[in-house]
Amino acid sequence: MSTKSIDLTLEIWRQKDSKSKGDFEKYSLENISTGMSFLEMLDVLNENLTGRGLDPVAFDHDCREGICGMCGAVINGIAHGPEPETTLCQLHMRHFNDGDILVIEPFRSRAFPIHKDLITDRSALDRIIQAGGYVSVNTGGTPDGNAIPIPSATAESAMDAAACIGCGACVASCPNGAAMLFTGAKISQLSLLPQGQPERKERAMAMVTTMDKEGFGNCTNERECEAVCPKRVSIANIARMNREFVKAALLG
Amino acid sequence: MELKPNVPEGPLAEKWDKHRFSSKLVNPANRRKHKIIVVGTGLAGASASATLAEQGYEVSTFCIQDSPRRAHSIAAQGGINAAKNYQNDGDSVQRLFYDTIKGGDFRSREANVYRLAQVSNNIIDQCVAQGVPFAREYGGTLANRSFGGAQVSRTFYARGQTGQQLLLGAYSALSRQIKAGNVSIHSRQEMMELVLVDGKARGIVTRNVITGKLETHAADAIILATGGYGNAYFLSTNAMASNVTAAWRAHKKGAGFANPCFVQIHPTCIPVHGSFQSKLTLMSESLRNDGRVWVPATPGDTRKPASIPEEERDYYLESKYPSFGNLVPRDVASRNAKEQCDAGKGVGTTNLAVYLDFADAIHRDGKETILKKYGNLFQMYEKITDSNPLYEPMMIYPAVHYTMGGLWVDYNLMTTIPGLFAIGECNFSDHGANRLGASALMQGLADGYFIIGTSIANYIGSTSLEEVSGDEPAFSDATCGVKDRIKALLNSSEGGPEGKLSVDEIHKELGLLLWDYCGMARNQEGLEKALSLLPQIQEKFWSRVYIPGTGDELNQSLERAGRLADFLEFAEIMILDALDREESCGCHLREESQTDENEAKRDDANFSHVAVWEYQGKGARPHLHREKLTFENVTPSQRSYK
Amino acid sequence: MACSGFLLILFLCSHAAGNATLFSSVALFQAYADMLHSHPLIVSMFSKGLLLVFIIHIVTGALLFLQNRRARSQGYKVQRRAVKNSQASATMIYSGLTILLFVLLHTYVVSFGNHKTIGETIVNLFSSFFVSIFYIVSFIGLAIHLSHGFWSMLQTFGINHPRYNSFIQRLSYLMPIFFLLIFGSIPLLFLFGTGQ
After folding, report:
1. Which residues of chain B are within 8 Å of residue A63 when distances are taken between CB atoms?
2. Do chains A and C touch (3 or more CB pairs under 8 A)?
3. What is the pLDDT of residues A19-54, one digit of tens each?
4. Which CATH number fits domain C2-72+91-191: 1.10.150.170, 3.90.230.10, 3.40.50.720, 1.20.1300.10?
5. In degrees rounded to 5, what are phi and psi of residue B264?
6. Minimal Cα–Cα distance from C122 to chain A, Å?
7. ipTM of the complex
8. CB-based contacts of A113: which residues, under 8 Å, 6+ apart?
9. Which of B60, B356, B405, C45 shows the greatest Cβ crowding within 10 Å of its Cβ?
């Protein structure tokens, strides 16, 4: 792995708090190692700003391994940046060139109000799960893990859907600010597995209704969500959710 | 401070049953009158919150992230152990117990570990019932893989994302209880202080990280599920926000801190590649099932791995430990990697790496099979390093990963402060001096789903608890204390950044000190040096740290500074503990205490104890208590993986 | 959206079948039209039903457009798509409006124009170069609209299965091309004087 240094110009959305009006600020950064991750590049910027007595850029991040779903921003118009199947923390600077101008914007959706700079409030996604993204079992008294055989392929499909990290890039990239991929993934996972069957209809109805209530847009099948999803969650899950919803709505 | 382990009498296998029977219960109708605070929403915190809420308690749950789903348990890759013996390969509760206690180098409490092994099977059943998509065999039964430190296949997994799937399972159970109104969730809140009333834990002070507002919350019992302190080293596999603050606040209020020097260094991490590095990424230990670890046989060999012929490679783990080979426990694997690199055989640009090679496995099983098992790990590795393990061996190096030490708890998982419980990585209880792979998930969920409920009922049922509203002076005093502290943190920032240091600069300095002198191998001289250098870093922090902004707003620099301030204090007991434990055990290698073959040499006569530190006030040397470990069911043997 | 779209596709099929008689001769087309008009009940039911479906499609489309714009009230400074070839899906509202304009003009000319026979109207209409071009452009708009609309309809109905996806993919290209060929070749036919 060979690393080199590049110079960048950053245009970053700065917004003091949820009530303030934000705007873009321009920063130039020199000598960025291409071995850095995108967030490490932002760390360098922040150290730089701090050293100059300026307010560092607030951004969400935690595991920096691409699994917690905490980080995320829109880089030059693409959520999580240009590399497919990559969260921002796993995006490395070797994918950029010397002299690039990077416009960094927060995830935008009516359902994701901005707290500060690049930090948004994604709790609407939690409320969708709270509406029904679970199997109603209490702790204890569950049957043996092998009591119900599940075909390997079914478990794999459920896992494909369950891989969602809840980062919200699907919402951010959707021209309609829809959360169909997120919701569809959870509905899919549980409708595929035998454990999810008893509450299948109620779950689909409740989660879809909550999704609408939270102010997310509708799906017009633009496929942007799938294209930016760091975990390659497929829109087949949206189709499955539609089936589940129609079945639940028509057949009750 | 009095250490009462409260381990029930009787034969090992019956202790947990007996204990459940003798524990007090709380009438279901009365449970809703009792409020429980849970801090943290990892596997332990989320499962405890959900379970206690299901049982009928009023639960308030706090997490630092924007959603309870993001706690760092999510990053665990490899799997979760359980003594199901589905593979019919001779596994049993007894064997899981034995492996865990042996893996921990006989520095954990028999009764706790046995209970862990007993409830391990329930965890799998619970998770399957929640819809966790564990890997399955073609016949539809659950699949297992083997893991370091065990000779049976008992690890359940969901691709390389087992932690994520288990956490999402617990999160879904928690979400259900939030919806039902039994749990109130407080996200983006950081616990700043513990509040004691009449010597019992009765509340916490939190800071809303979005608004900077301080809040007080009162309860009948408080459960800390706040994870480990690996970030003391700055570079670790922990998430950026992982910290010791909650545990340290509790410690300063009287909770004993056990075995702080027991820090696990994970052997398979992606090597450090630059000073800008913010964290280290772990590659699941499961990779060692099929990957072969090697270095060039001659020091200083800089050829590409592919051009080093077979006979000029040193598969040091296989040759040194023929029966376990590449699957030796983590501490052994880590130490050997360091040894090879110290001998000049390290590879990569920094010479601080060894190869983990899949060529043989690919040749044997085919690309497809290997990709099916490790595809996402390979992808992750390639993303970070730009090199594909299918064609080039991975480069790995040990990194700080897990902390076996933590708040001292009794058999009920209660700390030395009545009403304050610690579960998951936050406590010290089950892993001794070294944790086996796939056991952290097991412990987190065992504590949360199956143990803490009994403890809480027993505590509430047997304790007279006065009504506490949160208006008592103890709460306002604690809040004032937190305010003063924030003020003190911001104090040195007046007058601008000139000549000041950033939080990270000081944190890196602390990290380096700990890594150099209190890392993989420790000796008296180094530890004493670290102890003498530490106050300088502390002084530097309080006099020269620059934190932009104020305390009344979203201020990530301030958050980090608060955590670093606690790490700086905490580091002292870490070093003291390492200094006091003049033996090698598990991950704690004192260079003075080695066998002739350079293996860790335990000293059971003098150190078969849990070291528990008691805070004595600012500037005073902490006091050491010892909980004697007795082994009635296993005979501590010198660990040998040869 | 998908349901009304589905009905409109059915209508397109029947319309295309009817129009295909023009490939034989204007007389046959005239006979077909006369036959339809000899059942006034069918004509009125169909035309009113069609109007209703159209209105539903347009109203839901417009509502969707507005709702979705509200859900993403603030756009990005840099507008880029992660999906390649997303022009059709990104321009549904515009291709839809083109079709609406066409439908309005087409029904006006055909139904409310000067009261010659439909056959004569057609012959007259396509003798104009500009009208023919307008028709062809509209049909291209229709094809673009369908290329996303048809697949999108199936996805909304939940029809997405790895076994059939490549077939659906091909169909969502072929179907609009089919309609474009049928409808588009009619003005061409007359423009080059081969229609009679």
Report:
1. 70, 72, 74-75, 239-240
2. yes
3. 999 999 999 999 999 999 999 999 999 999 999 999
4. 1.20.1300.10
5. -90, 130
6. 36
7. 0.98
8. A18, A120, A121
9. B405
